[in-house]
Amino acid sequence: MSAAWRGAAAIVGVAESDLGRVPEGLSSLDLIGQATAGALAEAGLGTEDVDALYTTSAYFPMSALVTAEYLGVRPRVADGTNIGGSTFVAQAVRAAQAIAAGEVEVALICYSSTQLSDGGRLVTTNRPLSYEGEFSPRFPISMFALATARHMHEFGTTREQLAEVAVAARRWAQLNPKAYARDELSVEDVLGSRMVSDPLTVRDCCLVTDGGGAVVMTSAERARDLPQEPVYVLGGGEATDHANLSQMPDLTTTAAAVSGARAWETSGLGPADMDVVQLYDAFTINPVLFLEDLGFCAKGEGGAFVADGGIAPGGRLPVNTSGGGLSYCHPGMFGIFLLIEATRQLRGETGARQVAGARTALVHGNGGALASEVTAVLGTADTL
Amino acid sequence: MSAPPAPEDHYRAGLEAGELRYQWCTDCAAPVFYPRVLCPGCGGTALEWRVSGGAGTVYSATVVRSRDGARGVVLVDLEEGFRMMSRVTGDPEAVAIGSAVTLRVDTSGEAAQAVFDPAGEPS
Ligand SMILES: [Zn+2]
After folding, report:
1. Residues in domain ChsH2 rubredoxin-like zinc ribbon (chain B) (predicted)?
2. Which residue is closest to A200 within chain B, CA to CA?
3. pTM recorded for the entire structure
4. Where would you tag: which of A88, A126, A232, B67 has the fewest CB atoms within 10 A of its CB?
Protein backbone atom coordinates (compact mmCIF):
# COMPACT_ATOMS: atom_id res chain seq x y z
CA MET A 1 0.00 0.00 0.00
CA SER A 2 1.40 3.38 -0.94
CA ALA A 3 2.23 5.88 1.80
CA ALA A 4 -0.20 8.47 3.15
CA TRP A 5 2.34 11.14 2.26
CA ARG A 6 2.63 10.01 -1.38
CA GLY A 7 2.45 13.10 -3.59
CA ALA A 8 1.75 15.47 -0.67
CA ALA A 9 4.92 17.49 -1.23
CA ALA A 10 6.71 18.73 -4.33
CA ILE A 11 10.04 20.09 -5.45
CA VAL A 12 9.43 23.62 -6.72
CA GLY A 13 12.93 25.02 -7.16
CA VAL A 14 16.40 23.65 -7.86
CA ALA A 15 19.76 25.24 -8.64
CA GLU A 16 23.48 24.65 -8.58
CA SER A 17 26.09 27.16 -7.48
CA ASP A 18 29.21 27.73 -9.55
CA LEU A 19 30.66 24.29 -10.29
CA GLY A 20 34.08 22.92 -11.16
CA ARG A 21 36.82 25.17 -9.81
CA VAL A 22 35.20 28.23 -8.29
CA PRO A 23 36.78 31.70 -8.12
CA GLU A 24 39.40 32.00 -5.41
CA GLY A 25 38.15 33.05 -2.00
CA LEU A 26 34.57 31.83 -2.36
CA SER A 27 33.66 29.79 0.72
CA SER A 28 31.35 26.80 0.99
CA LEU A 29 28.73 29.13 2.51
CA ASP A 30 29.04 31.50 -0.44
CA LEU A 31 28.28 28.59 -2.77
CA ILE A 32 25.26 27.60 -0.66
CA GLY A 33 24.14 31.23 -0.94
CA GLN A 34 24.41 31.11 -4.73
CA ALA A 35 22.50 27.85 -5.03
CA THR A 36 19.82 28.91 -2.55
CA ALA A 37 19.24 32.25 -4.28
CA GLY A 38 18.87 30.42 -7.58
CA ALA A 39 16.50 27.75 -6.29
CA LEU A 40 14.28 30.20 -4.39
CA ALA A 41 14.16 32.57 -7.38
CA GLU A 42 12.87 29.91 -9.74
CA ALA A 43 10.40 28.77 -7.05
CA GLY A 44 9.06 32.30 -6.72
CA LEU A 45 9.82 32.24 -2.99
CA GLY A 46 12.17 34.12 -0.65
CA THR A 47 14.32 33.25 2.34
CA GLU A 48 11.50 34.56 4.57
CA ASP A 49 9.29 31.71 3.32
CA VAL A 50 11.70 28.98 4.44
CA ASP A 51 10.63 27.39 7.73
CA ALA A 52 12.73 24.22 7.55
CA LEU A 53 16.42 24.01 6.69
CA TYR A 54 18.13 20.73 5.84
CA THR A 55 21.86 20.69 5.16
CA THR A 56 25.15 19.04 6.05
CA SER A 57 28.78 20.03 5.69
CA ALA A 58 32.32 18.72 5.82
CA TYR A 59 33.35 22.03 7.37
CA PHE A 60 30.85 22.71 10.16
CA PRO A 61 29.69 20.11 12.69
CA MET A 62 26.73 22.41 13.47
CA SER A 63 26.09 23.00 9.79
CA ALA A 64 22.39 23.86 10.07
CA LEU A 65 23.09 26.70 12.49
CA VAL A 66 25.89 28.24 10.47
CA THR A 67 23.94 27.90 7.23
CA ALA A 68 20.73 29.35 8.68
CA GLU A 69 22.65 32.36 9.96
CA TYR A 70 24.44 32.95 6.65
CA LEU A 71 21.21 32.72 4.64
CA GLY A 72 19.19 34.73 7.14
CA VAL A 73 16.54 32.09 7.61
CA ARG A 74 14.92 31.36 11.00
CA PRO A 75 13.87 27.74 10.62
CA ARG A 76 11.50 25.84 12.90
CA VAL A 77 13.33 22.71 11.76
CA ALA A 78 17.14 22.94 11.56
CA ASP A 79 18.46 19.56 10.42
CA GLY A 80 22.19 18.97 9.95
CA THR A 81 22.04 15.18 9.76
CA ASN A 82 25.17 13.66 8.24
CA ILE A 83 24.75 10.14 6.88
CA GLY A 84 27.17 10.77 4.00
CA GLY A 85 26.31 11.55 0.41
CA SER A 86 22.83 10.06 0.77
CA THR A 87 21.91 12.76 3.30
CA PHE A 88 20.04 15.01 0.88
CA VAL A 89 17.87 12.25 -0.54
CA ALA A 90 16.96 11.29 3.02
CA GLN A 91 16.25 14.91 3.86
CA ALA A 92 13.96 15.23 0.82
CA VAL A 93 11.96 12.21 2.01
CA ARG A 94 11.86 13.47 5.61
CA ALA A 95 10.85 16.94 4.41
CA ALA A 96 8.07 15.44 2.31
CA GLN A 97 6.79 13.60 5.38
CA ALA A 98 6.99 16.76 7.53
CA ILE A 99 5.19 18.81 4.87
CA ALA A 100 2.51 16.13 4.55
CA ALA A 101 2.03 16.23 8.33
CA GLY A 102 1.59 19.99 8.22
CA GLU A 103 4.68 20.59 10.36
CA VAL A 104 6.64 22.32 7.60
CA GLU A 105 5.52 24.74 4.89
CA VAL A 106 8.67 25.43 2.84
CA ALA A 107 11.79 23.27 3.11
CA LEU A 108 15.21 24.22 1.81
CA ILE A 109 17.77 21.45 1.28
CA CYS A 110 21.26 22.73 0.47
CA TYR A 111 24.92 21.72 0.38
CA SER A 112 28.27 22.79 -0.99
CA SER A 113 31.98 22.11 -0.85
CA THR A 114 35.12 23.79 -2.14
CA GLN A 115 37.07 20.54 -1.99
CA LEU A 116 38.89 21.08 -5.29
CA SER A 117 40.05 24.56 -4.27
CA ASP A 118 40.95 23.15 -0.87
CA GLY A 119 43.59 20.97 -2.54
CA GLY A 120 41.66 18.09 -4.05
CA ARG A 121 41.56 15.89 -0.98
CA LEU A 122 38.31 14.62 0.41
CA VAL A 123 37.46 16.94 3.29
CA THR A 124 36.06 14.86 6.10
CA THR A 125 35.98 14.67 9.86
CA ASN A 126 35.04 11.00 9.60
CA ARG A 127 37.47 8.57 11.23
CA PRO A 128 37.82 4.90 10.37
CA LEU A 129 37.48 2.29 13.05
CA SER A 130 40.89 1.60 14.61
CA TYR A 131 40.50 -2.09 13.71
CA GLU A 132 40.47 -1.04 10.04
CA GLY A 133 42.58 2.11 10.06
CA GLU A 134 45.62 0.25 11.39
CA PHE A 135 45.92 -1.55 8.02
CA SER A 136 46.01 1.75 6.09
CA PRO A 137 43.32 1.24 3.48
CA ARG A 138 42.88 4.34 1.34
CA PHE A 139 39.55 5.81 2.32
CA PRO A 140 37.08 5.63 0.71
CA ILE A 141 38.34 3.98 -2.48
CA SER A 142 39.76 0.79 -0.91
CA MET A 143 36.34 0.02 0.57
CA PHE A 144 34.68 0.17 -2.83
CA ALA A 145 37.63 -1.74 -4.33
CA LEU A 146 37.05 -4.59 -1.88
CA ALA A 147 33.35 -4.67 -2.81
CA THR A 148 34.26 -4.59 -6.50
CA ALA A 149 36.77 -7.44 -6.17
CA ARG A 150 34.21 -9.61 -4.37
CA HIS A 151 31.53 -8.86 -7.01
CA MET A 152 33.98 -9.83 -9.75
CA HIS A 153 34.87 -13.03 -7.86
CA GLU A 154 31.28 -14.11 -7.25
CA PHE A 155 29.61 -13.09 -10.50
CA GLY A 156 32.35 -12.75 -13.10
CA THR A 157 31.82 -9.01 -13.43
CA THR A 158 34.68 -7.60 -15.51
CA ARG A 159 36.76 -4.45 -15.38
CA GLU A 160 35.55 -3.74 -18.94
CA GLN A 161 31.94 -3.76 -17.74
CA LEU A 162 32.82 -1.38 -14.91
CA ALA A 163 34.65 0.88 -17.35
CA GLU A 164 31.41 1.09 -19.34
CA VAL A 165 29.83 2.86 -16.36
CA ALA A 166 32.46 5.60 -16.58
CA VAL A 167 32.15 5.81 -20.36
CA ALA A 168 28.34 6.05 -20.19
CA ALA A 169 28.63 8.86 -17.64
CA ARG A 170 31.03 10.69 -19.93
CA ARG A 171 28.70 10.36 -22.91
CA TRP A 172 25.85 11.88 -20.88
CA ALA A 173 28.20 14.61 -19.65
CA GLN A 174 29.00 15.51 -23.23
CA LEU A 175 25.29 16.43 -23.53
CA ASN A 176 25.39 18.57 -20.35
CA PRO A 177 27.00 22.02 -20.80
CA LYS A 178 27.54 22.26 -17.02
CA ALA A 179 29.50 19.01 -16.77
CA TYR A 180 33.13 19.29 -15.66
CA ALA A 181 34.64 16.39 -17.66
CA ARG A 182 33.45 16.32 -21.28
CA ASP A 183 36.46 15.12 -23.30
CA GLU A 184 36.41 11.74 -25.02
CA LEU A 185 36.77 8.68 -22.79
CA SER A 186 36.96 5.06 -23.95
CA VAL A 187 36.87 1.74 -22.13
CA GLU A 188 40.57 1.41 -22.99
CA ASP A 189 41.27 4.81 -21.41
CA VAL A 190 39.65 3.69 -18.16
CA LEU A 191 41.45 0.34 -18.11
CA GLY A 192 44.80 1.94 -18.92
CA SER A 193 44.65 4.77 -16.40
CA ARG A 194 46.51 4.78 -13.09
CA MET A 195 45.55 2.00 -10.70
CA VAL A 196 44.68 3.43 -7.28
CA SER A 197 43.26 0.51 -5.32
CA ASP A 198 42.91 -2.68 -7.36
CA PRO A 199 40.75 -3.23 -9.37
CA LEU A 200 39.77 0.47 -9.46
CA THR A 201 41.71 3.01 -11.51
CA VAL A 202 41.50 6.76 -11.16
CA ARG A 203 38.88 6.73 -13.96
CA ASP A 204 36.68 4.38 -11.93
CA CYS A 205 36.48 7.16 -9.32
CA CYS A 206 34.22 10.18 -9.14
CA LEU A 207 35.56 13.66 -9.84
CA VAL A 208 36.91 16.06 -7.26
CA THR A 209 35.26 19.44 -7.85
CA ASP A 210 33.87 22.45 -6.05
CA GLY A 211 30.17 23.13 -6.12
CA GLY A 212 26.87 23.34 -4.34
CA GLY A 213 23.20 22.75 -4.85
CA ALA A 214 19.83 23.67 -3.40
CA VAL A 215 16.34 22.16 -3.58
CA VAL A 216 13.16 23.90 -2.42
CA MET A 217 10.08 21.88 -1.46
CA THR A 218 6.56 22.78 -0.38
CA SER A 219 3.08 21.28 -0.19
CA ALA A 220 1.42 20.00 -3.35
CA GLU A 221 -1.33 22.52 -2.77
CA ARG A 222 1.01 25.53 -2.59
CA ALA A 223 3.18 24.14 -5.41
CA ARG A 224 0.33 24.47 -7.88
CA ASP A 225 0.41 28.28 -7.50
CA LEU A 226 4.18 28.57 -8.03
CA PRO A 227 5.97 29.20 -11.36
CA GLN A 228 7.59 25.78 -11.90
CA GLU A 229 5.91 22.55 -12.90
CA PRO A 230 5.84 20.69 -9.53
CA VAL A 231 7.84 17.47 -9.19
CA TYR A 232 6.15 15.31 -6.56
CA VAL A 233 7.78 13.05 -4.01
CA LEU A 234 5.91 9.78 -4.55
CA GLY A 235 7.82 7.56 -2.11
CA GLY A 236 11.10 6.78 -0.46
CA GLY A 237 12.99 4.69 2.01
CA GLU A 238 16.20 4.64 4.04
CA ALA A 239 18.39 1.77 5.21
CA THR A 240 21.69 1.55 7.06
CA ASP A 241 23.53 -1.67 7.85
CA HIS A 242 27.08 -0.74 8.90
CA ALA A 243 29.62 2.06 8.94
CA ASN A 244 32.92 0.18 8.51
CA LEU A 245 33.23 -2.23 5.61
CA SER A 246 34.32 -5.24 7.67
CA GLN A 247 30.92 -5.02 9.37
CA MET A 248 28.93 -5.15 6.09
CA PRO A 249 27.10 -8.48 6.05
CA ASP A 250 27.61 -9.21 2.33
CA LEU A 251 29.81 -7.01 0.16
CA THR A 252 27.78 -7.80 -2.94
CA THR A 253 24.34 -6.82 -1.59
CA THR A 254 23.81 -3.32 -0.23
CA ALA A 255 21.10 -1.89 2.01
CA ALA A 256 19.63 -0.46 -1.22
CA ALA A 257 17.70 -3.72 -1.38
CA VAL A 258 15.87 -2.57 1.77
CA SER A 259 15.58 1.15 0.98
CA GLY A 260 14.46 0.31 -2.54
CA ALA A 261 11.75 -2.07 -1.38
CA ARG A 262 10.43 0.67 0.91
CA ALA A 263 10.51 3.21 -1.94
CA TRP A 264 8.56 0.87 -4.21
CA GLU A 265 6.04 0.13 -1.47
CA THR A 266 5.46 3.78 -0.54
CA SER A 267 5.21 4.94 -4.15
CA GLY A 268 3.15 2.03 -5.40
CA LEU A 269 5.52 1.82 -8.37
CA GLY A 270 8.32 -0.51 -9.43
CA PRO A 271 11.51 -0.58 -11.48
CA ALA A 272 9.65 -1.12 -14.76
CA ASP A 273 7.73 2.13 -14.16
CA MET A 274 10.85 4.32 -14.00
CA ASP A 275 11.58 6.55 -16.99
CA VAL A 276 14.90 7.96 -15.75
CA VAL A 277 17.27 6.83 -12.99
CA GLN A 278 19.83 8.78 -10.93
CA LEU A 279 22.22 6.59 -8.90
CA TYR A 280 25.05 7.90 -6.74
CA ASP A 281 28.13 6.83 -8.75
CA ALA A 282 31.05 7.56 -6.43
CA PHE A 283 32.79 4.58 -8.05
CA THR A 284 31.90 2.50 -11.10
CA ILE A 285 30.77 -0.46 -8.98
CA ASN A 286 28.02 1.63 -7.34
CA PRO A 287 25.52 1.76 -10.22
CA VAL A 288 26.10 -1.95 -10.84
CA LEU A 289 25.22 -2.81 -7.22
CA PHE A 290 22.27 -0.43 -7.08
CA LEU A 291 20.73 -1.59 -10.39
CA GLU A 292 20.73 -5.09 -8.91
CA ASP A 293 19.60 -4.19 -5.40
CA LEU A 294 16.82 -1.86 -6.61
CA GLY A 295 15.47 -4.57 -8.89
CA PHE A 296 16.38 -3.29 -12.35
CA CYS A 297 18.16 -6.60 -12.93
CA ALA A 298 18.89 -9.78 -11.00
CA LYS A 299 21.74 -10.05 -8.48
CA GLY A 300 24.97 -10.66 -10.35
CA GLU A 301 23.66 -9.36 -13.68
CA GLY A 302 24.57 -5.70 -13.16
CA GLY A 303 27.75 -6.05 -15.20
CA ALA A 304 25.87 -7.37 -18.21
CA PHE A 305 23.20 -4.68 -17.71
CA VAL A 306 25.70 -1.82 -18.05
CA ALA A 307 27.69 -3.49 -20.86
CA ASP A 308 27.38 -2.49 -24.52
CA GLY A 309 26.26 1.03 -23.67
CA GLY A 310 23.37 -0.25 -21.53
CA ILE A 311 23.11 2.90 -19.42
CA ALA A 312 24.60 5.35 -21.94
CA PRO A 313 22.49 7.68 -24.14
CA GLY A 314 20.35 5.44 -26.35
CA GLY A 315 20.83 2.43 -24.05
CA ARG A 316 18.32 0.22 -22.30
CA LEU A 317 17.88 2.52 -19.29
CA PRO A 318 18.83 6.22 -18.96
CA VAL A 319 21.04 6.32 -15.84
CA ASN A 320 22.84 9.43 -14.51
CA THR A 321 21.80 11.71 -17.35
CA SER A 322 23.76 14.65 -15.89
CA GLY A 323 27.04 12.77 -16.28
CA GLY A 324 26.92 11.84 -12.60
CA GLY A 325 29.63 12.12 -10.01
CA LEU A 326 31.97 10.49 -12.53
CA SER A 327 31.77 13.31 -15.11
CA TYR A 328 29.40 16.17 -14.12
CA CYS A 329 30.59 17.27 -10.67
CA HIS A 330 31.44 15.78 -7.31
CA PRO A 331 32.02 18.21 -4.45
CA GLY A 332 32.49 15.62 -1.70
CA MET A 333 28.84 14.60 -1.52
CA PHE A 334 26.65 14.15 -4.59
CA GLY A 335 23.13 13.42 -3.29
CA ILE A 336 21.72 16.92 -3.84
CA PHE A 337 22.68 16.82 -7.54
CA LEU A 338 20.72 13.59 -8.05
CA LEU A 339 17.57 15.45 -6.94
CA ILE A 340 18.38 18.45 -9.15
CA GLU A 341 18.87 16.37 -12.31
CA ALA A 342 15.79 14.21 -11.69
CA THR A 343 13.69 17.34 -11.21
CA ARG A 344 14.95 18.90 -14.43
CA GLN A 345 14.34 15.71 -16.37
CA LEU A 346 10.75 15.56 -15.11
CA ARG A 347 10.20 19.20 -16.07
CA GLY A 348 11.53 18.41 -19.55
CA GLU A 349 14.18 21.12 -19.50
CA THR A 350 17.43 19.21 -20.02
CA GLY A 351 17.91 19.88 -23.73
CA ALA A 352 20.12 17.45 -25.61
CA ARG A 353 20.11 14.89 -22.79
CA GLN A 354 16.34 15.01 -22.16
CA VAL A 355 14.63 11.64 -21.79
CA ALA A 356 11.56 12.17 -23.95
CA GLY A 357 8.33 12.24 -21.99
CA ALA A 358 9.90 11.34 -18.64
CA ARG A 359 7.16 11.19 -15.96
CA THR A 360 8.88 9.17 -13.25
CA ALA A 361 12.39 9.27 -11.79
CA LEU A 362 14.26 7.12 -9.32
CA VAL A 363 16.86 8.83 -7.14
CA HIS A 364 19.26 6.73 -5.10
CA GLY A 365 21.87 8.12 -2.72
CA ASN A 366 24.74 6.28 -1.09
CA GLY A 367 26.41 7.38 2.13
CA GLY A 368 29.81 6.23 3.34
CA ALA A 369 31.24 2.87 2.28
CA LEU A 370 27.95 1.42 0.97
CA ALA A 371 26.65 2.08 4.47
CA SER A 372 23.64 4.37 4.15
CA GLU A 373 21.33 3.76 1.22
CA VAL A 374 18.39 6.05 0.51
CA THR A 375 15.92 5.77 -2.35
CA ALA A 376 13.26 8.23 -3.51
CA VAL A 377 10.70 8.10 -6.29
CA LEU A 378 9.68 11.36 -7.98
CA GLY A 379 6.97 11.99 -10.53
CA THR A 380 5.04 14.56 -12.55
CA ALA A 381 1.43 15.61 -11.86
CA ASP A 382 0.01 12.81 -13.98
CA THR A 383 1.64 10.16 -11.77
CA LEU A 384 -0.37 11.26 -8.71
CA MET B 1 37.01 -5.55 42.68
CA SER B 2 38.52 -3.66 39.78
CA ALA B 3 36.51 -2.91 36.62
CA PRO B 4 37.18 -5.18 33.61
CA PRO B 5 39.43 -3.61 30.97
CA ALA B 6 37.85 -1.73 28.08
CA PRO B 7 37.09 -4.10 25.18
CA GLU B 8 39.71 -2.64 22.84
CA ASP B 9 42.35 -2.63 25.59
CA HIS B 10 41.73 -6.33 26.26
CA TYR B 11 41.95 -7.02 22.52
CA ARG B 12 45.22 -5.12 22.12
CA ALA B 13 46.68 -6.79 25.23
CA GLY B 14 45.85 -10.13 23.60
CA LEU B 15 47.83 -9.21 20.51
CA GLU B 16 50.79 -8.18 22.65
CA ALA B 17 50.54 -11.65 24.21
CA GLY B 18 50.51 -13.23 20.73
CA GLU B 19 46.82 -14.13 20.48
CA LEU B 20 43.80 -12.96 18.48
CA ARG B 21 40.97 -12.45 20.92
CA TYR B 22 37.31 -12.15 19.94
CA GLN B 23 34.04 -12.25 21.82
CA TRP B 24 31.27 -14.83 21.96
CA CYS B 25 27.70 -13.87 22.79
CA THR B 26 26.30 -16.53 25.11
CA ASP B 27 22.77 -15.14 24.63
CA CYS B 28 22.54 -15.70 20.88
CA ALA B 29 25.52 -18.04 20.39
CA ALA B 30 27.35 -15.90 17.85
CA PRO B 31 30.86 -14.47 17.50
CA VAL B 32 31.32 -10.74 17.96
CA PHE B 33 34.10 -8.75 16.30
CA TYR B 34 35.20 -6.00 16.75
CA PRO B 35 35.06 -6.13 20.55
CA ARG B 36 32.34 -4.11 22.31
CA VAL B 37 30.17 -4.13 25.41
CA LEU B 38 26.98 -5.42 23.85
CA CYS B 39 26.19 -7.91 21.13
CA PRO B 40 25.25 -6.21 17.83
CA GLY B 41 23.21 -9.29 16.95
CA CYS B 42 20.85 -9.40 19.93
CA GLY B 43 21.69 -6.46 22.20
CA GLY B 44 22.73 -8.77 25.02
CA THR B 45 25.68 -8.05 27.26
CA ALA B 46 26.70 -11.62 28.11
CA LEU B 47 29.91 -11.59 26.08
CA GLU B 48 32.79 -13.88 26.88
CA TRP B 49 36.30 -13.68 25.47
CA ARG B 50 37.69 -16.45 23.29
CA VAL B 51 40.95 -16.91 21.39
CA SER B 52 40.86 -17.57 17.64
CA GLY B 53 42.62 -20.63 16.26
CA GLY B 54 43.91 -18.35 13.48
CA ALA B 55 42.63 -20.24 10.42
CA GLY B 56 40.99 -17.99 7.87
CA THR B 57 39.92 -17.47 4.27
CA VAL B 58 40.43 -14.32 2.20
CA TYR B 59 36.95 -12.81 1.61
CA SER B 60 38.17 -9.89 -0.49
CA ALA B 61 41.44 -8.19 -1.34
CA THR B 62 42.77 -4.95 -2.79
CA VAL B 63 46.21 -3.46 -3.40
CA VAL B 64 46.64 0.19 -2.47
CA ARG B 65 49.05 1.96 -4.84
CA SER B 66 51.02 4.93 -3.61
CA ARG B 67 54.34 6.64 -4.18
CA ASP B 68 55.77 4.44 -1.43
CA GLY B 69 54.82 1.29 -3.31
CA ALA B 70 52.00 -1.22 -3.08
CA ARG B 71 50.38 -2.52 0.09
CA GLY B 72 47.72 -5.14 0.43
CA VAL B 73 44.48 -4.79 2.37
CA VAL B 74 42.23 -7.80 2.84
CA LEU B 75 39.09 -8.91 4.60
CA VAL B 76 39.58 -12.30 6.24
CA ASP B 77 36.80 -14.63 7.40
CA LEU B 78 38.01 -16.50 10.48
CA GLU B 79 36.99 -20.09 11.01
CA GLU B 80 35.14 -19.02 14.17
CA GLY B 81 32.70 -17.01 12.05
CA PHE B 82 33.85 -13.42 12.27
CA ARG B 83 35.41 -11.13 9.67
CA MET B 84 38.24 -8.65 10.09
CA MET B 85 40.36 -6.30 8.00
CA SER B 86 44.04 -7.22 7.81
CA ARG B 87 46.88 -7.81 5.37
CA VAL B 88 48.50 -10.94 3.99
CA THR B 89 52.27 -11.18 4.24
CA GLY B 90 54.35 -11.40 1.06
CA ASP B 91 53.46 -10.13 -2.41
CA PRO B 92 50.14 -8.26 -2.15
CA GLU B 93 49.37 -8.94 -5.81
CA ALA B 94 49.53 -12.70 -5.20
CA VAL B 95 46.63 -12.72 -2.72
CA ALA B 96 43.58 -14.48 -4.19
CA ILE B 97 40.03 -14.31 -2.87
CA GLY B 98 39.10 -17.68 -1.38
CA SER B 99 42.62 -18.65 -0.47
CA ALA B 100 43.43 -20.07 2.96
CA VAL B 101 45.48 -17.98 5.38
CA THR B 102 46.91 -18.45 8.85
CA LEU B 103 47.18 -15.89 11.65
CA ARG B 104 50.55 -14.40 12.50
CA VAL B 105 50.74 -11.80 15.25
CA ASP B 106 53.17 -9.21 13.94
CA THR B 107 55.05 -7.54 16.77
CA SER B 108 57.62 -5.81 14.56
CA GLY B 109 55.79 -2.48 14.52
CA GLU B 110 54.85 0.03 17.18
CA ALA B 111 51.77 -1.98 18.16
CA ALA B 112 51.16 -5.70 17.65
CA GLN B 113 48.84 -6.52 14.72
CA ALA B 114 46.90 -9.57 13.57
CA VAL B 115 48.15 -10.28 10.04
CA PHE B 116 47.98 -13.46 7.97
CA ASP B 117 50.40 -15.74 6.14
CA PRO B 118 49.34 -17.71 3.09
CA ALA B 119 48.39 -21.13 4.55
CA GLY B 120 50.92 -23.90 4.19
CA GLU B 121 53.91 -21.59 4.02
CA PRO B 122 56.52 -21.58 6.76
CA SER B 123 56.08 -18.67 9.13
ZN1 LIG C 1 23.93 -11.84 20.92
Report:
1. 12-48
2. B62
3. 0.97
4. B67
What is the predicted pLDDT for the residue at B122? 47
What region, left, alpha or beta, does residue A332 occupy, with left being phi > 0 and alpha being psi -120 to 50 degrees? left
Residue B13's region, left for phi above 0, alpha for psi from -120 to 50, else beta, is: alpha
Where does the pLDDT of residue A128 fall: very low under 50, low under 70, confident under 90, or very high at 90 and above? confident
Counting Cβ atoms within 10 Å, is residue A23 exposed (0-12), middle (13-18) or buried (19+)?
A: exposed
Strands A195-197 and B30-32, sheet pairing: unpaired
Q: How far apart are CA A126 and CA A142, in angstroms?
A: 15
Q: Which ipTM was obtained for this model? A: 0.96
Q: In chain B, which residues have their Cβ closer than 8 Å to the Cβ of A135?
A: 73, 85-87, 113
| Confidence band for B4, pLDDT divided at 50, 70 and 90 | confident
The one-letter amino acid at B42: C
* Contact between A153 and B60 using a beta-carbon 8 Å cutoff: yes
Q: What is the mean pLDDT of residues A11-39?
A: 97
Contact assessment for residue A164 and residue A187, using Cβ atoms and an 8 Å cutoff? yes
8 Å CB contact between A337 and A89: no
Cα separation, A239 vs A249, in Å, equals 13
pLDDT at A331: 96
Provide the pairing of β-strand A211-219 with A106-113.
antiparallel
Active-site residue, A328 included = yes
* pLDDT digit string, tens, across residues A224-264: 999 999 999 999 999 999 999 999 999 999 999 999 999 99
Q: Which tens digits make up the pLDDT trace of A193-204?
A: 999 999 999 999
Whether residue B123 has pLDDT greater than 50:
no
Q: Which residue among B65, B93, B111 places its CB closest to the CB of A196?
A: B65
Alpha carbon B1 to chain centroid, angstroms = 30
Please state, as a whole number, how many other Cβ atoms lie within 10 Å of the Cβ of residue A384.
13
